Request: fold
Amino acid sequence: MKHFALIGFPLGHSLSASYFGEKFAREGIDAEYSPLAIERAEEVLPHCEHLSGFNVTIPHKQAIMPFLSAISEEAEAIGAVNCVKVTPDGLEGYNTDVVGIRKSLEGVALEGAKAIVLGTGGASKAVQYVLREGGAEVAVVSRTEGVADLTYNDLSEELIANTDIIVNTTPLGMFPNTESAPELPYESLSAKHTLFDCVYNPRLTKFLQLGAEQGARTIDGMTMFEAQAEASWEIWR
Reply:
């Protein structure tokens, strides 16, 4: 039997173990997938003797990279890894988030669009990569001054009104803190806006709900979650 895992901290929101458990049972695959809550990325290393691969989530998508013996060209360009294959020669890092992000944004006009990405972590880096790949103009928002292009204090009604796409890559709104949402002037949203949330549990986050109330198009994180999981499996199998 092969063993796979998800590393991150905390992991109470994750559906990865149930997703892969159901997949393995449905397809007759002799494997198991377990959550591995670790506070530091390097804590996974002793477990690798028993693993064939693992996914990486908040907050380790960048922190895991120094421990890898090889990184795919795309993951290197993005600056984040969410999928690791354990091989006899070491750990190979990949980014399958981009597969899910591309699929989620199918049908959204990216060329020339003005996009705002909330958050600066590993998921943010993958979102920025896909948006820029599609020709969008991207501004990144951080809570901390000087870390990104903007802070939340910069998100004026006028700026939001003149934006086309807003993507939440932060954990705000994620189970169990489902009543939280990024601080935006939601009243400036309209039917011209597309809101994409990388959070998938719950599917309808407060961020998406507030956008929908203003007529904005909303895209939840489930397509991204499922597509990146399947892409990870293609790497491991």
